[in-house]
Amino acid sequence: MRGRTWLGAALVLGAQLRALWLAAAVEVHTAREVVAVNGTNQRLKCTFSSSSPVSQQLSVSWNFQPEDLSSHEPVFYYLKEPYKPPSGRFKERVTWDGNIERNDVSIIIWNLQPSDNGTFTCQVTNWPDVYGTIGEVRLRVVQKVSFSEIHFLAVAIGSASVLMIIVVTAVIICQQRRRRARDKRSEVADTEL
To answer: Which of the four, 79, 82, 85, 165, has the lowest number of CB atoms within 10 Å?
Structure first.
């Protein structure tokens, strides 16, 4: 009797695990935070992974939550083809920049403004994977790039370039000195003979 109970429990557990496998979740990956300059365009990258192959029913929803926590606004929708928003702050300012075959569902926001500060969400449904994580990107639009961002990068690259030139020059000088010393020794050895 005990053997049958154990076997029954194993079969029930196996059926539940099989159901969970079939309803695997879509995983969405985004950058956590993006900083962009006012008036520029910014690509909001969103990729996904799914245990199922990409289906014809794959859908993508991009939404926006402003910093003042007012209501969510639709930004973009994809189902077999991209659909731009018919109205709202992102009308004529958002473009599809994804590639479904590469699991990329990114968009580009054009002409960024300080009112675009907030959180963008990217949700992907790939039937039968209908549940999953929602990717979030916090966008900060700044008036100009601060010194610590661009200038620091330029100084670091410039310093590395100068250091590389110094190292290469030192190596060349050392090789020339060794060659001269070797040539002198050869001349001295030849004159002694």
So the answer is: 165
Nearest to 33 by CA among 140, 115, 121, 106: 140
What does the alpha-carbon distance between residue 46 and residue 100 come to, in Å, rounded to a whole number?
Answer: 11
The tens digit of pLDDT for each residue in 32-64 reads 999 999 999 999 999 999 888 888 889 999 999
Q: Which phi-psi region, left, alpha or beta, contains residue 66 (left: φ > 0; alpha: ψ -120 to 50)?
A: beta
pTM reported for the whole predicted model: 0.62
Give the chain's length: 193
Only one residue has tokens 């473009």, namely: 95
Name 96's bridge partners. 107
- More confident: 167 or 15: 167
Q: At 119, is the secondary structure helix, strand, or coil? A: strand
Phi-psi region of 109 (alpha: psi -120 to 50; beta: other; left: phi over 0): beta
| Residue 75 pLDDT class (50, 70, 90 cuts) | very high
Count of alpha carbons within 13 angstroms of residue 30, beta-carbon side: 26
Q: For residue 166, which amino acid is it?
A: I
| Mean pLDDT, residues 18-44 | 81
| CATH (one of 2.60.40.10, 2.30.130.10, 3.40.50.620, 3.30.70.100) for 21-142 | 2.60.40.10
Q: Considering only CA atoms, which of 32, 33, 59, 30 is closest in space to residue 45?
A: 30
